[in-house]
């Protein structure tokens, strides 16, 4: 079963059979046993005798490592492994919660519950305090509010970015990250 290597068909550019350019290769059998270092011609004959393909699995090794396997099955298993790895990944989003310095207790509790929900979903939370007009002269109120938020969420979050002022509009920003699961 001889196949030609098609670069557009495989994005990782795995060389198969006659596309392997090395003079000598280290061959691994279909059962995982080490056959040894042989010439490419002998390796291709071994693979053809078994009705399988010679697939280059480690092209950068000296000499390159080739495995005698069914190429279709090899490609299927590799794509399945990649798909499973993508399923297990979690993209971290940054959710934002905006507060005002004169926020009421009930509103604060509501915003804190939302922040807790975001952190438990393994997302980061950006907490910002917006100041308007004369509130700008009392930036310490915003600082106290952010410290209170960090203390209330200390069981599920850690401070990733300390509170800092941002721009002319006088915004205090703090970023919370979820604590690592142990």
How is this structure best described in words?
This protein folds into two domains: 17-85, Roll (Ubiquitin-like (UB roll)), CATH 3.10.20; 94-178, Translation initiation factor 3 (IF-3), C-terminal domain (Translation Initiation Factor IF3), CATH 3.30.110.10. It is 32% helix and 29% strand. It has helices at 40-50, 71-88, 105-120, 139-152, and strands at residues 24-28, 34-39, 53-58, 65-69, 94-99, 124-130, 157-166, 171-178. The strands form two sheets. It has a four-stranded mixed beta sheet. The longest helix has 18 residues, at 71-88. The protein is rod-shaped, with a radius of gyration of 29 Å. Residues 7-11 have low confidence and may be disordered.
Task: Record the SSE blueprint.
Blueprint: E1 24-28, E2 34-39, H1 40-50, E3 53-58, E4 65-69, H2 71-88, E5 94-99, H3 105-120, E6 124-130, H4 139-152, E7 157-166, E8 171-178
Parallel strand pairs: 1-4, 5-6
Antiparallel strand pairs: 1-2, 3-4, 6-8, 7-8
